[in-house]
Amino acid sequence: MLTTHRKQQILSILKRQGQVIAKEVSAAMSVSEDTIRRDLREMAQEGLLQRVHGGALPASPAVADFTQREQIAPEGKVAIGRAAAKMVQPGQVVILDGGTTARQVARHIPLDLKATIVTHSPTIALELIDHQNIEVILIGGRLFRHSVVAVGASAIETIAQIHADTFFMGVTGIHPKTGLTTGDYEEAAIKRAMSHAAAETIVLASAEKLNAASPYAVVPLSEISGIITERSAEKTLLRPYEKLGITVTRA
């Protein structure tokens, strides 16, 4: 079987089953596992999938820069942002992640709501500039330009001093096998620190992030309380999370 044909078959399996197990694919195609692993390496370099131990998972498309990501599923992100904003209660301390979906949360917080928003994103802080009753705590650090957020040791130290009610987390991938993942090592550490600083973590996940994975783990699914996704998301994609007792809100 030609390499091109093998890779097409691998993508077909990935789409149909949501994962590729190298041992099973090598047996089905009558080629060695080394050959399949080489195919997977090459496909991962092309951004077609995310390699994991023993095989591969779908790669998240949400790894482009901030401007490009704003063009991905904009209507879905607006709906998710609106639903998340409704969950913010008066007097709460809420940590709001950076990213394009979190930006929609900030835009839909009522102007008269009195609460505290903690964020490491200057973009989010600017969205809240006209919310006179919102106290904004902006966490500083080294600017990670890809997501326009602060990262680094000083940011993590500041986050450790906060005890928030809720953390609205943005990720590039959420998968029953790998949990919550993102595309940068330092950004993963910041998200993990913010999750540990809140009583509950709710994940903002537009449909393209479901059943997808990125290189760096944030937290396992056992550490989150809820997921907000688009109404159009396939129920079969959401079922594994509901079985784990995670509250899934379809916005």
How are the secondary structure elements laid out?
Elements: H1 3-17, E1 20-21, H2 22-29, H3 33-45, E2 49-52, E3 55-58, H4 66-69, H5 74-87, E4 93-96, H6 100-108, E5 115-119, H7 122-127, E6 134-138, E7 142-144, E8 149-151, H8 153-159, E9 164-170, E10 173-175, E11 179-182, H9 185-196, E12 198-204, E13 216-217, E14 226-229, H10 235-243, E15 247-250
Parallel strand pairs: 4-5, 4-9, 5-6, 9-12, 12-14, 14-15
Antiparallel strand pairs: 1-3, 2-3, 7-8, 10-11, 11-13
Helix pairs in contact: 2-3, 5-6
| Level-2 CATH architecture of the largest domain | 3-Layer(aba) Sandwich
Lateral strand order in the biggest sheet: 6-5-4-9-12-14-15
Output the structural class. Answer: alpha/beta
CATH fold title of the largest domain: Rossmann fold
**Number of alpha- plus pi-helical segments:** 10
Considering the protein shown, what is the CATH homologous superfamily of the largest domain? Translation initiation factor eif-2b, domain 2
Rough outline: elongated
Average of pLDDT: 90
Number of strands: 15
> What string, H for helix and E for strand, traces the elements in order?
HEHHEEHHEHEHEEEHEEEHEEEHE
> What composes the largest sheet?
7 strands, parallel
- What is the total domain count? 2
The gyration radius over C-alpha positions equals: 19 Å
Keywords: DNA-binding, Repressor, Transcription, Transcription regulation
Domain HTH deoR-type: 3-58
Protein name: DeoR/GlpR family DNA-binding transcription regulator
GO molecular function: DNA binding; DNA-binding transcription factor activity
